[in-house]
Structures are given as C-alpha cells and as structure tokens.
Amino acid sequence: MTGKIQVVRRTLQAASFFFLLYLILQAAFPLEVKIPVDLYLRLDPFIGMVTLLTQGEVIVRMLPAFAVLLLVIIFGNFFCGWFCPMGATIDFFDRILFREKKRTQPFNDQPIRRFRYGVFVFSLASGLMGLQVLYLLDPISLITRTLVIAFYPPGVYIYNHLLPEIQRFLPKNPFILPTPKLPVFKVNLLIFLFFSAILALGVVRKRFWCRYLCPLGTLFSLTSRLRIVRRAVSEDCIQCGKCSKECSIGAIPAEAPQQYRQQDCISCFQCRECPPKAVSFGFALPRWKTAEGVSLSRRYVVGSLAFGFLSALAIKTNPLQTESGLKNSRLIRPPGALPEKKFVSACTGCGECLKVCPNNALQSTFLEAGLAGLYTPRLVPRIGYCEEFCNFCGRVCPTAALQVLSIDEKRLIQMGVAHIDKTRCLAYDQDKICLVCNEQCSYHAIVGDEKKRPIVKEEKCTGCGICENKCPVDGESAIIVHTSGVQKKIKPEAETKA
Amino acid sequence: MALPKMFFLGVHSRPSMAYAAGDADLVIAQQGTPTQLLQAAIAPLGGMGRFVKKGQRVVIKANIAWARTPDQACTNNPELLSSLIKMCYQAGAKRVAIWDHTCDNYQFCFSRSGLKKVTQEAGADIFSGHGRNVYKQVEVPKGKKLKTVEIIQDVLDTDVFINFPIPKQHFATELTLGLKNFIGIVWDMEQLHKIDLHQCIADLSTIRRPDLVIVDAIRILTTNGPKGPGKTEDIGEVLASTDIVAVDAYAAAYFKHPKTGKPFKPAEIRFVKNAYDLGLGEINLSKVRMKKVKAA
Q: Using a CB-CB distance cutoff of 8 angstroms, which residues of chain A are in contact with residue B125?
C-alpha cells in the first residue's frame, strides 16, 4: 500500500521533472517566458558555491541558490526527494527497472559512503584552483545537459518523422508544414552513455548516484545536520527492519532502526509506512548527534584535498589546456563570453545556450578547449551561424559565463574574423560570379572587387560565420572564421540613411 | 504580346491564364496608399477575379529573406502584402499561403519584417522553406544549365501562383527583381551560384511561370543589396503583370548603372536577357501593352 504522502511526493517529482522539460523546451525563439528558463540551475547551491570560489564574486543570478541552501540548513533536505529532477528520474527508473530481489545482496557500505565526501572536497580544492571539472557531476547541470544534448535531437527526429503522418489526418490544412531543422551535437553519445550508466547503477542500490556520488547531495548532507524537521520513533517499534530496507538513501541502520542519519535523510517519508506506525516526523530541537556518521579521517580529507589540487595542476599543465589558451583559432566562444580562463571556470556545461541557439550554431566541446573546458559551448559556423538579432545565449546562462548583452551591444562584439581561402573560393579559383558571402553578410564586412570577388573588411567583421555557413563550396568552407581568442568591440558604423 | 503558347510541358506545369482579356499586359500604378496602388494596378489586367477563381489555392512567393524592418526596404511592404491576401480572398480563394526560403533564421525574418503579423491577421498562412520535407525534386527540361532542382512542392501544386518581389540592388547580379525572387523557392540556393547564377535564375522560371507578378516598388533598396540596410528610394509604384520578363525589364530602370550612371537597360541584367532568350517573356518594352494609372 502506498500512502497518500508517497502519491503526493511522486506527483511532485514528476511535475518537477516535466517542469524542467518545459523550461528547456521554452529555451527557444522568441524567449519571452516570465520564468527564467535556467531556473533550476539558479536554485542549485553547489553551482552557487563553486562559482563563488572560482569567480571570487557573488553572481547575482545565482543568489536564489543560497536561499535554497538556507532552507535546507533549517528544515532539512527536502530537495533531493521531492524536487530534484535527477532524483525523480533515478527514482522512476529504479522502480520500473530494478526489483528489490534483483539487486545484489546488501553489503556494508560504510567505506564507500565517504566517497562522495572525497569527491566534494576534491571539487572544492580544484575549484579554488579555478577549475570546475566537477560541474560535470552536478545533478541539475547534468540532467539539463543530458536532456538538451542527448534527448532533444532524437525528439526532433521523431517529431519530424511523425509530422507528415499526423498531417495526413488534418484534411483542413492542405499545406505541408516544414519540419524543423534537426539539431546536431557531436558529443551526444558520450553524454547519453554517462547518463545511462548512472541509471544502471540503480541495480546495485536504490539511488546509487545520490548515495555515493552526487556533490549537491553531499553539500546538503554537510549542512543539514541541525535540521528542525526530525524523525522520531516511538516505543511501538518492533524492529522489523522495514524502514531500514525501504529507505531510498540508506540513512537508517538495520541494527538500530530507532536512529537515523538526519543529515543524509532526504525527507521522502517512506519510513512512515511502518507496520506498527511507530515512525513520525515533526518539528524538534536540532541535535548534532547522529547514527554512525561517516568516518572521515584526517588522512582521507587531506588526501582528497591534495588530490584535488594536484589534479587541477595536472589539468592546468596539460598540453590540451594550452589549446584553449588562445592557440586554437577555431575555438570561437559565443558572443559575450568572459575571457577564456574565466569562462572555462564559470561555465557549468549545462547546455542551455546550446538549446536556445536558433541556428544550432553552438556546439559542446569535447577536448577542443582542454580537459577543463569539457562540454563548454563554442560556435561552429559550418553547422550554424550566429544570428544577427539574437542575444539568447547570454540571457539563459545561469552563471553569467556568457554576459547578458543588448542586441546593439551584441552586434558590435567581434568573436573572430573571416578569412578567404583563395585557392578554393569559386570567385578567385574558377572566376564564377558567386558572392554568396557578400550577399549574406549582415555587417557589410565583405565587399566585392571590380571582378566581383569577395574581400573581407576585418574592422567590420564580427565573426558571426554566416559566410562560412552559406559558402557553396563542398565540404569545408572557402571562407573560414578564425579567432584570436579575445573578444573585441568593433566601432559602430554610422547608419546609412535614405 | 509575343508569348509562345503552352510552353509548359512538364508534369507540374499548368496552362497559364495569361492569355485572357485585359486592357494591358503591364500596369504601373502610381500615387496612393499601398492598398489603392494594388487595386489600381490589378483592375486594368481584368481584376483579381481573372486570376483567382472560387475555391482555388493561392501561393504567394514574397520576399522575406532577411531579418530587416519594413522601412529598410529589404522585405515586402506589409500593408501591400496584407491587401494582396485580402484581394485573393475577396476573389474567392480557398486558402492563401505565403512562402519564402529565408536566408536569415526564419523566425527572426518573420517577426522583424512584420510580415508574419499581417499575414496572420489577413487570414493566410506563412511558411518558410527551412525543412527539406516541403520540397520536391523536379527535372528542368527547358533549362540550359540547370537540369534538376528541388522546388517547394506547394508552388508546383497550387492553383494560382503569384510572384511578389521587391526590387533591390544586388552586388552579384546587379539587381534582384521578379525572376531573381524565384531563388527563394529552391532548397539548395547556394548551389546555383556554383553552376551559373544568371542562367539558373532564368532556367528556374521555366518550371512554373507565375500567373501574376506584383512588384512592390513602393520603396526600393538602391545600395548594399540584397540584405541591406542601405540607401532607399521611395518610388511609390506598384507593378502588375502577367509577363515576368516585361516587369523586370521595366523595374530595372529604377536603378542606375554603377559605371555609366544611367538607368539600367533591361538587357544589361543578364538573367533578364537569359529569360528572354528562353522565351519566357518580352524584354522590349515597346512591344508590351503598358498602362500607367493614378491610384488616388
């Protein structure tokens, strides 16, 4: 029998997941929703904390996250069990895929329980070094990224194939609707596999990810020990051990079910389904004392810290990293991006900008920006160009790694400069009248000479890449945008008037 | 008017109605609001009822290629498009669709040009050719260089096809006029530049000749075309014709040749000349029955 509270909780979990999905789908033209589409990320205190460390300043957009943290500190962790869309997904798949019988035998998880604290300390240490590799494990960023990169393109693919079938049943409309362009992301398989692996871990234990890996959950565990909503067990307890078995986070010791680790409790209230009804939750005075806390030895903490520092150093001195150090001239960052080093340490790789980009121009990096820049956005003009009157990517960035720009400001940002390959250009190489690049250029940065061959005026070029995108030459374009790695401001052109 | 009869032999061609009655073959309407100009321009051709019969489907190929505002004259005049749609419905059209394969992102083109709003207010549908599923591959038997091309299927299937260009300066082809407007019904537009742009423009028009051409010359773009923004000139004219070469020949004279400084001669625009050579219409304006009317 499932109690009423569990029905409410599961409904809320589903609602939370679908609300996130709705917000992600709303991250598109015309971007006029009242609720910020990156709401969930802005409510994530782990991102808030790490950006505080890496940026050395409070990011105004991330302030709501600290309110969430405050609520958790006072009342306890209601986030993971009730609202976290990642937790909701894991709970769902745990229920439908893995029956309790199929799970491996219970084992003493005391040694591996401290693993996530190690991960957490590691991330703080590397965060202090200006490195954010562990944004990749943040559950909100992770699920947003997975939904955008791994599941949005297949969704569009299915829609595009169903659309003609659906339209067949709509005799009123004699016109065929054009299907949206299929978005493509190169790293989708990698992200899909990572996400699948997290779900598959459920075969070992319920909410394996949440128990042993999630850094956001660890932050809540560290801060909510003095919570005021507490569990109490009356003397009716018959030691049946049901609550200990049902607890999705494993916070109740099997040998002493009257106790629990209040810091780990995600307040799902499943233990209230107690045969003698001995378990209740209510407001109580905070207590520091807890059941068998994680034994974090000094050696372990210092070790994690040192490992974090050393890893950060190793990544910083990795030759891949110098590629993002302005040497990769094809690593074009979106308009309004912070200087490369700051950008890499602020971007959580959530993929909101990838989703909102109307031309699919923004792509997730793999190793182009070094290990630290994994899953950060870059402009790939041959896939899509930067739309002239669009400033969406900055408007959806939760950590302000991309600055909010007005349309006028954005049109003056030089991300790179186009260069013509005269050996491949139709006009130079084959004396054809082409000038697609000149006709497409939004900024009058490409002019034609007397033989109608294109010439780039560097001082006007913003590097939007529309020329590279539309160039009719097969394969690589004959006009290619290169970047110096630093975004400049170009001088505004006096508006030509009639 | 020297038009060869029935030169559409392809599967998708239909006999054009361009031979029916009317006082003129090319009407130039001057002075008036966009709506007045349009009405004045179509009346001497025999009225909209000559082209649009009751229950027919109409496709209008507008120019919405760029994310520019109406006053920049890079896209069609919204009021004129609105009146055109309304006139089609008054003539009994079942459904009117506006098509263009935009160059900039279609959502920005539609909203900034203001054309989506007026289209929907007038009760028509506006479509952009960004999805390949709306195209159909066709042979171009009469084409000299262009042998096969993917064309918006609606253009091939519709009962009435109206071409609705706006004349603009164009660096690659000197000008963009009615014939050039057809580039926007092709899937792989950039590919045409690789073959031979001028000849391809002419070849394209052999696939489906428009039943009616309305040229939006209320305000034209004279520099930095076709995307602009550039200098504009208020001409205040609307042209209506059944002969696409003749309107282009007339509209070419709005612009001055960059070298000589004199108005363009029709034969100086290569795609107009090529289209004439293909027998698509009359380039010599003295052979065209022209009529100038005052709208207001």
A: 175
Q: Which residues of B115-124 are buried (b: 16+ CB within 10 A; e: fewer)?
A: bbebbeebeb
What's A250-280 look like in SS3? Answer: CCCCCCCCCCCCCCCCCCCCHHHCCCCCCEE
With contacts defined as CB-CB under 8 Å, which chain A residues touch B197? Answer: 432-434
Give chain A's domains with CATH numbers. Answer: 1-225+290-411 (no CATH), 413-489 (3.30.70.20)
User: For residue B60, what is the domain's CATH number?
Assistant: 3.40.50.11440
Quick check: B259 contacting A, CB < 8 Å?
no
List CB contacts (< 8 A) between A436 and chain B: 172, 190, 193
Task: Answer yes or no: do A448 and B171 touch at CB < 8 A.
Answer: yes
Task: Please report which helix (H) or strand (E) contains residue A448, including its range.
Answer: strand A446-448
Q: Cβ–Cβ of B190/A433 closer than 8 Å?
A: no
Please check whether residue B49 lies inside any domain of the structure: yes
Residue B17 included in any domain: no
Does a structural domain hold residue B135?
Answer: yes
Cα dihedral B66, B72, B77, B78 in deg (nearest 10): 70
Task: Kindly report the pTM of this predicted structure.
Answer: 0.90
Separation of alpha carbons A113 and A293, rounded Å:
10
Contact at CB, A177 and B223, closer than 8 angstroms = no
Give the per-residue pLDDT at B11.
38
Q: How confident is the model at residue A144 (pLDDT cuts 50, 70, 90)?
A: very high
Chain-wide mean pLDDT for chain B? 90
* B290 in contact with chain A, both atoms CB, cutoff 8 A: no
pLDDT of residue A293: 66
| Shortest distance, CA A426 to any CA of chain B (angstroms) | 7
If one counts the domains in chain B, the total is: 1
Taking an 8 Å cut-off on Cβ atoms, the answer to whether B67 and A441 are in contact is no
Domain containing B46 equals 26-294
pLDDT of residue B258: 86
- Residues with Cβ < 8 Å from A224, sequence gap 6 or more? A72, A73, A76, A77, A262, A263
Closest in A176, A441, A473 to B133, CB measured: A176
The DSSP annotation for B16-50 comes to -STTS--S-SEEEEESS-HHHHHHHHHGGGT-GGG
Q: Does B95 touch chain A (CB under 8 A)?
A: yes
